[in-house]
Amino acid sequence: MSLPAAWSPGSRRRLFVVLLVLLVAFAAGVSDADAQHASTASKSAATPDRARYDVTLRADADGGHWTGRQRVSFRNASARPLREVYLRLWGNGEDGCGTPGAPLPPVTVTHVEGGTPGPLSVDCTALRISLPRPLARGARTSVAFDVSLTVPGRNARFGREGAFRFLGNALPVLAVHDAGGWHLDPYVALGESFYSLTSDFRVRLDHPSALKVPATGLTRTRPGRPGRTVTLSVADRVRDFAWAAGPFRTAAQTTPGGVRVRSYWAPGTSAEGVRLNRTDAVAAVDRFGREFGRYPYGELDLVMTPGFGGGMEYPGLVLLGTTEEGSAVVHEVAHQWWYGIVGNDEYAAPWLDESFAQYANARFYGWETRECWSDVSWPDDDAALTASMAYWSRHRGEYHLVYTAGPCALADLERTLGAATMARLLEWYAHEHRYGVSTTADFKKAAQAMTDVDLTPFWKAHRIR
């Protein structure tokens, strides 16, 4: 998740500890639901893996309703036979199983083939599909289903702003099973609940020609039926697929490092803000590619509107609320590595993507961080930087610590190890976990391997548990 809409290139030069506390405003309306959460297991145990999604959807006249068919094939990577899978219907997170005015949830799945669906659970964000026979280790199978997506009326990652539609976390995706069981955590609007393995997507989006459709992956368009266009996307080794639709204005440029940056903005978005976003995104994607490993997806889409609440990251696409001072574009670009390429369970350990993305953001702008840890105020002695979203959902006013204390802790680690050693650590760590899943324990072990100094007191002092 990004920084609030008040963030800008002008204001971001101030002390970010003060600025980012504004994130609290973004937390309004979050459910206080909690769930027992199993610890993240090793990469080898996570399943189903090597998934491929083949999706065909058709939009209505304004892009607010999409219907079609989706097939997902997958492999069982675990030692035990796989008897079921779960789909996460994250688009139902805010509305649950429907409202009096809209009795059906925004995302519905019907006509399932390849398994038997059970009832929706976890506020209609989880659908269990029993497989017809146990899937042995290393074997593949697939399930297919009709899907209907109705974009909610709110301005949100799955929502709308004027004539523009945002379809983040709209497509059903496979839940993850590991040594701790199925990860079926509740949706949180405060941050993210999402945890997925990298997969390949082949998506066909049929829409009115008046709508531009930025999307995850390498995209191309071709004529459809009269008055319609088909946007085709190929995205390999990504954790999710998102798109937007609307009468955007567009521009494109290629970075010196060879990444195609496509910009889409709503009329009425500040021209200066669009310019700043494009400039910073081009510089950031190449810089982070040098620091954390080459950006692998070839294309990055910036989707900018004046009223979107802050920003939101997806593989190859970011949603940005943009003012004359720009937006949180660098933070969102950093998420292409910290969550996208180097994955994590965002419910169990949100600091692993948000704190790391914000640390990269701070380094990009050259913020002074030497004393920032001393400015951090903790709610109680038990609070930890590494807490899960279950904790932050109960302490919504403190969630900003993931964005403020987190980069301060990483900056202190840089001073402890030395700048050159910290750079080697992050480059190596990103390489070792590229397309995989990282944990706090993994990072602590990697950092300790870089120095003869016992880091135990450091982890304790910085509440990294």
UniProtKB/TrEMBL annotation:
Signal peptide coordinates: none
Peptidase M1 membrane alanine aminopeptidase domain sequence ranges: 294-460
Domain of life: Bacteria
UniProt cross-references to InterPro entries, sorted A to Z: M1_LTA4H (IPR034015), Peptidase_M1_dom (IPR014782), Peptidase_M4/M1_CTD_sf (IPR027268)
Protein name, per record: Metallopeptidase
The species this protein was found in: Streptomyces asoensis
Phylogenetic lineage: Bacteria, Bacillati, Actinomycetota, Actinomycetes, Kitasatosporales
